[in-house]
Amino acid sequence: MNLLSVVDFGGFLVTIFSVLVLHGPNLNLLGRREPGIYGLETLDGITESLETEAKNLGVSIDSLQSNYEGALVDAIHGALGIHRGLLINPGAYTHTSVAIRDAIAAVALPTVEVHLSNVYRREAFRHHSYIAPVAVGQISGFGAFSYILGLRALIHHLTHIPSG
Ligand code: DQA
Measured in angstroms, how far is the CA atom of residue 86 from the centroid of ligand 1? Predict the structure, then answer.
């Protein structure tokens, strides 16, 4: 899906845009990974819910999960000219990755950071995010619903806040 597409909805021409959804390491194991912390929803289930929500909001999404920092950096670079914004759960890279932070700053795409768990109620090393300073905002602690809230927040930002 291109940056801005014109779609024919039964005679009505509607412009829609696309956002990139990125999931960091270990999130492929959602559903079986520490369910007391992350819940029972699988990554496929989250993607399905996000696609339904995106359709309702009139946007399109592409999703990618990777356990590799460089693959996430490449995906962020690849979003330039294709996507209008970025929804990202960087997983543990939240707390370690200057490279992902720099990639987001480099492409300057509006970014919302999401976490399933409330990272501020957990170990001290999870209280620092390298991503938050280059994000529009952060949503943390609502389980799989954090992604839905994050997508709504990102779309609101992209459609209501003037860029530039
Ligand atoms: C997480 C929180 C991180 O601290 C952790 O490393 C994750 C998942 C979350 O969604 O709650 O992998 O990003």
Answer: 17
